[in-house]
Specification:
By secondary structure, the protein is α+β, with helices and mostly antiparallel strands. It folds into two domains: 71-113 and 175-367, no CATH class; 121-168. The chain contains five helices and 21 strands. The chain has helices spanning 106-115, 121-136, 146-168, 179-196, 351-367, and strands at residues 8-11, 14-19, 22-29, 32-36, 42-47, 50-55, 71-73, 85-90, 171-175, 201-210, 221-227, 229-233, 238-240, 244-248, 253-256, 261-265, 268-272, 278-287, 297-303, 321-333, 339-344. The strands form four sheets. Strands 7, 8, 10, 11, 18, 19, 20 and 21 form an eight-stranded mixed β-sheet that branches. Strands 12-14-15-16-17 form a five-stranded antiparallel β-sheet. A hairpin with a 5-residue loop joins strand 20 (321-333) and strand 21 (339-344). It is globular and about 85 Å long.
Length: 368
């Protein structure tokens, strides 16, 4: 994926313009736009080669420069006696606010303050609906077009308040990285794109250990899986002058920016320094209960219920044969508690991403 640092980015009807002197904003239609510049309605700061603004806040000055045992899906434990599960570990349980010292970072502090703001549009909608009900009882002598016009005006006002709510919570990021940082960021983007090209991309939310593998297709552990994705774009509630790899796991979203990783969880945001991020991947033999992805490597077969010799246990009816696939798993962890566990269907699918994340970590550590 090529990386291009844009001079302007659109967010709905709003355009953010980036320049060396700061960030401007304009809104309107072709031929008529209203905007504000670097000295307008923004609260700014800067560090590590980028500047940021709190959009539509109070006025502020210009910005500063700145191969393991086979695994089976968790569902197979449901048909087995409960004592078969001897240990369970949940992943992504840590609050993103605990992943870094967010109180010492003005950007993270600002982003969390914005995201906690109360949405006003539901109150506006309720108030206008009540007002329309009152006016409806008084509209007997009014021309027919008045009430439909008031309804349309009320809808337009609620839409505007909803848009205003989104803008109040929006953070604008402006990156001007040096050549070395840009090179690393491009490599991370390519690695993320390589991983995302896998036909099946999932997050592991729970890992369980089994005491008796005959109930779990011969697997010694089981996984509870959830949907996951990895795309190039903008993180939730953020507009930047570059598209970044956004990795959506089960509960946490990770956005890989040139200077650091931002972790999103509900209405909260945390930050992870590349120097603190550990990335490890390894092959894993997975008992596939569904359809086999086209890019998966099938290494053998097993049975849903197996006997001591590895064959089908004839005590169980409808004991189906199941393929063994060689998948790739990724663990992203930090000493502060990040625990993101992902799996893709392509053998070696995370190799490139892990390699570039390790290189970025070493580079940051050497620069400190």
């Amino acid at each position: 994926m090529g990386v291009s640092f844009a001079k302007s980015v659109k967010f709905g009807a709003v355009r953010f313009n980036f320049s060396g002197s700061g960030i401007g904003m304009s809104v309107g239609i072709p031929g008529l736009r209203i905007g504000t510049g670097p000295r307008g309605a923004y609260v700014g700061g800067g560090m590590s080669g980028f500047r940021y603004r709190k959009s539509l806040g109070t006025g502020a000055g210009p910005a500063a420069t700145a191969v393991q045992p086979a695994l089976a899906p968790e569902q197979y434990s449901e048909s087995a006696p409960q004592p078969n599960i001897i240990a369970t570990v949940e992943h992504e349980t840590k609050s993103v606010l605990e992943l870094t010292d967010a109180t010492s970072d003005s950007l993270i502090q600002s982003m969390n303050e914005q995201r906690q703001k109360t949405a006003l549009w539901p109150f506006a909608a309720a108030a206008l609906a009540l007002l329309l009900l009152v006016l409806r009882g008084m509209s007997g002598q009014w021309p027919e077009f008045v009430m439909p016009s008031l309804v349309a005006l009320s809808i337009a006002l609620v839409v505007w308040v909803h848009w205003r709510d989104k803008m109040r919570k929006l953070t604008v990021l402006f990156f001007e990285p040096d050549e070395a940082t840009t090179t690393h960021f491009e490599a991370i983007s390519r690695g993320a794109q390589s991983a995302a090209s896998s036909r099946r991309f999932q997050a592991v939310t729970t890992t369980s250990k089994y005491s008796d593998t005959k109930y779990s297709a011969g697997a010694s552990s089981g996984l509870k899986l959830a949907k996951a994705s990895c795309v190039a774009g903008q993180a939730p509630g953020v507009v930047a002058n570059v598209d970044v790899p956004v990795l959506q796991a089960a509960k946490i979203t990770l956005a890989f920016y040139p200077d650091r990783v931002l972790a999103f969880q509900g209405k909260t945001v945390g930050a992870i320094d590349y120097a603190e991020l550990d990335a490890k991947n390894s092959p894993v033999t997975f008992v596939e209960s569904g359809s086999v992805p086209s890019d998966a490597t099938v290494t053998g077969k097993t049975w849903q219920y197996v006997n001591k010799k590895g064959g089908p246990d004839k005590r169980f009816k409808n004991n189906r044969e199941m393929p063994l696939c060689r998948y790739n798993e990724l663990r992203l962890t930090t000493s502060r508690g990040l625990d993101v566990y992902l799996m893709c269907s392509r053998d070696g699918g995370f190799d490139e991403l892990v390699q570039v994340l390790r290189e970025r970590k070493v580079s940051v550590q050497r620069s400190v």
